[in-house]
Here is the input.
Amino acid sequence: MARMADGAGTTDRDRARGRAAGTAVVDPDVPVDAPERIPLAEPSLVIDPDDLEYAVDPADSIVPIGHVPVVRPPVRARRRLIPPMPSDTARGWIVTVALTLIGGMLRFWQLGWRTDGGTPLFDEKYYAVQAAEMIRTGGVEDNQAFGVIVHPPLGKQLIALGEMLLGYTPTGWRLASAICGTLTILIVIRAVRRLTRSTMLGGIAGILLICDGVSQVMAHTALLDTIQTPFVIGAFACLVADRDLVRRRIAAAVADGSMTDFAGGVPLGARWWRFAAGFLLGCATAVKWNGAYWIVAFGVMSVIWDICARREAGLRHPVSAVMRRDFFPSLWSLGIVPVLTYLGSYWAWFSNETGWDRHVAAGGNGVMGALRSLVTMTLAMLQTTDGILTPTDPAARHPWESKPWAWPLSGRPVLYYLAGGEGTTGCGEGRTDCVKRILLVGTPMLWWVSLAVLAWALWKAFGRLDWRYAAVLVGYGAGYLPWFTIFDRQMYFFYMTPVAPFLIIGITLVLGDILGGAAPARTRRRRVAHPVSAGEAPEYDAAAGDSDADDGPAATGRIPWRLRIRTWTGTWDGRTVRLVIVCGYVGLVAANFIWMWPILMGEPITPERLRWETWLPSWG
Here is the structure.
């Protein structure tokens, strides 16, 4: 219907002319207050030949009546493909080596300075002495104060190597711990880089581990938990690498069509990463028996990963496929290899006829007799350790023992070293009342967020099926939860030393979630579409002035600080803000570690500073 120009209405052409001329054209058919109508694009019936949705004609799947169509299980290619590793290989190794060297400097700093009058500190009195016995007697222990050997030999053998090199000195018996503490930093960086596909997050994990008070103090102490840590975290890193290897081989088999050529899927070939994980888990158990918990936990985790890999490849019965193809190789790598490694740690005991309890079993000669003696001695060791209970009388308890529920927050540390007092100098000019402490305590900025990190990890693992968080929970739980089954035993916070790297990895994953992925280029350009160029002042109301400035811009020639900050932050995108948050947290952790350095290293401080360092009453 035609519209008259004088009042009956206006046409689209009239509206266009009005907009071009800058005048308003009123349409009497449209209310004045109605929102402007947005023209919608006409629907297109043209099919894009490159659209994957139309790449396959549905009519091709039609079969004659009576025939069974081919059933193709859905295969999620995106889940099947392995995310590529970062391309900055050289930079990744530069970051790894640089942080490892920095961490090693801190782990070796003043390694032999603090002693108990020249003798070992705390439980060093057992392991340093037993390591010296091994040097004297050819790798076995003797003259046991408890009448039995309390732990397997590998950790004490490694301590003995340091004493062989540097003598029976504090640096000698702590050398193995410092080396293991440094190696843990390297392994964590590489493991996190593989988990997150980010060199930056791997570096952040290394920085956080360097700044962990527990890891720093334990690297200066000849205890078995420090030596066990790189074996545990190394096995974890090997299994993560094995997971990538398995999925890469399965993806290649799916791509070339060989996945369906074998019952249960294509054979995966030798899996040396998994074999290495079994060897390292055997070493961890040969240091302390609680390594067996990680053998069970990591073994189950590896089998579940294999099941998921074959299911994502399109196999209809992934569990039976894993039982057919992967069960026995898994049993060999993660079951038999750790046992053989554990037995191999007793090489000196088997070859020494005068070793402790070498012939405790009747007929202890020969291989089977030696194995019977080892089993008898092991049962005696278990009985002894299970008998070290917390006294019912509070006055008779060890002053620094604690229970597992206090460990995640580092609620009850352990005092390793106490010195100073009247006549001690070094904490300030004219001060003669300096004190020295070495307190095994976690950096609060790391350990006090542990419950929140664990809660987030649980949600991500079960709510979002994020395998990375699930792996961290497995590693953390295998080292922590079993202690609740024997909580009437006498326990100490240093049992959490092998668990600390998993806490660091979990925190780093959370920081990765906060940081997120890189914003698209279009988004970044849109957010900085109108930046303020150099030398160009933004609009400023001279009449309003700036309440925080003494003079206006006309008098000083300066832009008020509030406007400068608003202009600067206005060019930020969301990723920049998140990066500032992550860097701020890492900076707080580093500052917290520096502040606590005196009570981690036994530096002389004033009594007032000691009170400032003691953040909780349970630390005193």
Confidence is low (pLDDT under 50) at residues 1-10, 15-25, 43-47, 518-555. Residues 389 and 489 are 4 Å apart (CA to CA). The longest strand covers residues 414-420. The radius of gyration is 33 Å.
